[in-house]
């Protein structure tokens, strides 16, 4: 299952509006990613503390999850954070099986291209791919 949570400012609003798409298809996710207002959200003044962004969550029936967070900043730039948890482990420490990767200074197009292949594979496969980078 793929869930997408995203936020951005509409019009002259100071605070972002939050949106969610539960059980989204790959096509819906790609539409959200490509239609997101990257230019306006990335160019907000630094005093606007609550910024927008996109959070993509892929889960399976084994409670394994892969999450991708894209945070826009500056003119046509963003950061991409990827995290996969296959096993939460005892007390969240012992036996935990997870991997995290940060991709900084990407264009929105590069971030979308990084995420796109992961939308059609299993969470364990995403784990293997990210662990090998």
Automatic annotation (TrEMBL):
Protein's UniProt name: Uncharacterized protein
Species this protein is from: Vibrio nigripulchritudo
